[in-house]
């Protein structure tokens, strides 16, 4: 009996058991309702807007110039 003939089915069994365990755990997870999903989507949109504003500020040439002046002062 070749080593691979033993190892490959063993790996296959391990993967099948992990998939079954994952499926069982996934079915037990509480489902979020639409109100919670809508609230999370609204918060995500707010965060995306804030990140866009921060990106605009950081990539502004005046911000870089102010930072350089501040670095010279210290």
Protein architecture, described:
The protein has 74 residues and is mainly alpha-helical. The protein is 88% helix and 0% strand. It has 2 domains: 1-30; 32-74. The mean pLDDT is 83.
- In DSSP terms (H or I, runs of 4 or more residues), the helix count works out at 3
Major sheet, described briefly? none
Percent in strands: under 5%
Name the quaternary structure.
single chain
DSSP strand tally:
0
Query: What is the C-alpha radius of gyration, as a whole number of Å?
Result: 26 Å
- Overall domain count: 2
Task: Classify the helix fraction into a percent range.
Answer: over 70%
Structural class: mainly alpha
Mean pLDDT: 83
Show unreliable segments.
none
Shape: elongated
* Intertermini distance: 73 Å
N-to-C SSE string, H for helix and E for strand: HHH
Can I get a quick summary?
The chain is mainly alpha-helical and about 70 residues long.
Q: Which keywords apply here?
A:
74 residues, 2 domains, 3 helices, 88% helix
Helix-strand blueprint:
Layout: H1 3-28, H2 34-59, H3 61-73
């Amino acid at each position: 009996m070749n080593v691979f003939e033993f190892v490959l089915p063993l790996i296959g069994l391990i993967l099948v058991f992990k998939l079954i365990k994952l499926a069982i755990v996934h079915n037990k997870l509480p489902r979020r309702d639409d109100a919670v999903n809508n609230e999370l989507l609204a918060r995500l949109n707010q965060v995306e807007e804030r990140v866009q504003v921060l990106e605009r500020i950081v990539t502004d040439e005046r911000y870089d110039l102010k930072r350089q002046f501040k670095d010279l002062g210290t």
